[in-house]
Amino acid sequence: MTTTPAPLPVSPPAHRWRAPAAACTTVVLWASAFVSIRSAGEAYSPGALALGRLLAGTLVLGAILIVRREGLPRRGAWPGIITSGVLWFGLYMVALNWGEQEVDAGTAAMLVNIGPILIALLGARMLGEGLPRRLLLGMGVSFAGAVVVGLAMSGHGGSSVLGVALCLLAAVAYAAGVVSQKPALAHGSSLQINTFGCLIGAVACLPFTGVLVSEAADAPLSATLNMVYLGVFPTALAFTTWGYALARTTAGKMGATTYAVPALVVGMAWVLLDEVPTPLGIVGGVLCLAGVAVSRSRQQTGPTRGNPTRPVEGSRHDEECQAERT
Q1: What is the pLDDT of residues 228-250, one digit of tens each?
Q2: Using CA atoms, how far apart are residues 181 and 36, in angstroms rounded to an integer?
């Protein structure tokens, strides 16, 4: 069933940099998560790592929510909070942690990057967002870049049918979580939506409590610190900045933005893990970034005849909706 998309919030000209800055913050922190997961995954099993990450994220988000006195979101937000909490915060994290233990990094990158395509398709079907040509073109270029990055990074581990299935499951859970979260942001702030989504994800992962306690007793300090980092930054901070940006654009465009992650992972692995990228990996990273630039660009339109001045601020959403339909 297609729903009418909620009007996008209109920011004053001086504040229009905030949503792009929030999206960039999310992408950088999510890219760093791949490095931390690789380190923490040597000492923690997938479920325990997901639970520890979500508990740390919930504590940070809950503390900020109390300090800001934002309270509970409105009733209309809860279906989206519950769905995204179970699928995105819970299932996605466990499936991705497990999948990366079963397949090499290149295969995982290619499979998980099906997610943005699914987000665009689900957003068009469930949210009535449309599929503008620039978005489709940009996603095609970025996906090609993700495949190239995957091919460049492959060969460092074995692949299994189970690992492929888990990465595909993670991509589906990610896409469904994003699309279900989008309507909830019309009924609450990003902090509210993500605090309770993270809490629900942690509750869903509580069956791994015993494993987490057991593994934490034997894990090196570096692995535990990486798990805490995952909860504080790629979860608490990055999901909040994601929600802020998502409330101000379409789910399809935000999904396409995450295609910058593989390019950043290549650079971070070079700096932090001393993994020198291959020429093929550099080409793939450039394609990923180019596709994001195309998908996020606006179609240039000339001034209206008889009214060459800039349109009034209140008509900005109407123009964006019209651009989405072209």
Answers
A1: 999 999 999 999 998 898 888 77
A2: 25
